[in-house]
Design goal:
Shape: elongated
Oligomer: single chain
CATH superfamily of the largest domain: Hsp33 domain
CATH architecture of the largest domain: 3-Layer(bab) Sandwich
Number of domains: 2
Number of strands: 13
CATH class of the largest domain: Alpha Beta
Helix content: 25-40%
Strand content: 25-35%
CATH topology of the largest domain: Hsp33 domain
Strand order of the largest sheet: 7-6-3-4-5-11
Order of helices and strands: EEHHEEEHHEEHEEHHHEEHHEEH
């Protein structure tokens, strides 16, 4: 008989986030997978495997975090440190569009450890994890910051939830060259428990401990390859779990001509013209999608001439 733990085939193009809820106790969860979206996000980058995988975990985690709150705008998960990886940034919008990037030293390209390294401390050194929520109209901004803790990104995220959200939460993450996946479990606080409010506190605490232990048995390969329904059956087949419809996840960069011109206007006319005089053109390359915007002397003249509308010029790409 085939081992039920054996995984032999990857289910491709599952780019989705799916919510589920335990019917008997106030615990909810989310499963997220990025396949084609993940490949599109990294296709123009040549990150060392360890950095690539950490970025994938961060992108999956940003979606899991975003799914726990209601917002219209963008959620950013940022890791900064004094190690070989200086910056790692993952962003998702309320409609589940994602993008991300990593910046690292030349050492990371040459050091063989970064082919397999999984310790977040070895990659980032001492640093911090910052979660930022910007509303679409930029009227409000929320930010939570914690120190990097433990060996995996999930360890720091658990500390973030304990300190900033004060909601018992566990996250399991996995990423490789083909995809990124994540599982989140969250014990709902009093007031959000609804029909579970009558249950005794020890009963709820015992249920929370038990579902965490079950989730700990999920292997990275299973998280990366099995369909959501199989994952939930494998882990919680003795529980009554309500599974909701999935929401599609996709890669989309928010760079645009308007954003580039706005940045250059913020830089100032003197500095922009100085770059133009030195190089003959002004080139702006998006760190997220690697798209390059090239402005010539005519473009720069229109940019700083209020009588013209640069944004309507279609030749800039």
């Amino acid at each position: 008989m085939q081992d039920p733990k054996a995984v032999v085939l990857k289910v491709h193009n599952r780019d989705s986030l799916r919510r589920f809820m335990f019917e008997q106790y106030p615990i909810r969860g989310h499963l997220v997978h990025l396949d084609a979206a993940w490949v599109a996000l990294i296709q123009h980058r040549n990150y060392p495997p360890a950095i690539r995988n950490l970025l994938g975990e961060a992108v999956a985690a940003s979606l899991l975090l975003g799914a726990t709150i209601k917002f219209e705008g963008a959620l950013s998960l940022e890791l900064r440190g004094d190690g070989p990886v200086h910056l790692l940034l993952a962003q998702c919008t309320n409609n589940l569009a994602v993008r991300g990037l990593a910046r690292h030293s030349e050492q990371a390209l040459q050091d063989e450890r970064f082919l397999v390294e999984t310790d977040i401390g070895a990659l980032l050194g001492s640093g911090r994890l910052t979660v930022t929520l910007d509303t679409e109209d930029q009227a409000q901004r929320y930010q939570g910051i914690v120190s990097l803790t433990g060996k995996r990104l999930a360890d720091s995220l658990q500390v973030y939830f304990e300190n900033s959200e004060q909601i018992p939460t566990r996250i399991w993450l996995h990423a490789d060259a083909e995809g990124a996946s994540g599982l989140l479990l969250q014990s709902l606080p009093e007031g959000l428990s609804g029909p579970f409010a009558a249950n005794s506190e020890p009963y709820i605490e015992d249920a929370w401990r038990r579902v965490q232990l079950l989730a700990d048995t999920l292997t990275p390969a299973e998280l990366a390859t099995l369909p959501d329904t199989e994952i939930l059956h494998l882990l919680f087949n003795e529980d009554d779990v309500r599974v909701y419809d999935y929401s599609p996840v996709f890669f989309k960069c928010r760079c645009s001509v308007q954003r580039v011109t706005g940045m250059l206007q913020g830089l100032g006319e003197v500095e922009t013209r100085s770059i133009l005089a030195e190089r003959g053109t002004v080139e702006i390359c998006c760190d997220f999608c690697n798209r390059t915007y090239v402005l010539d002397s005519v473009d720069v003249e229109k940019l700083f001439n209020p009588a013209t509308s640069f944004a309507k010029r279609q030749s800039v790409h």
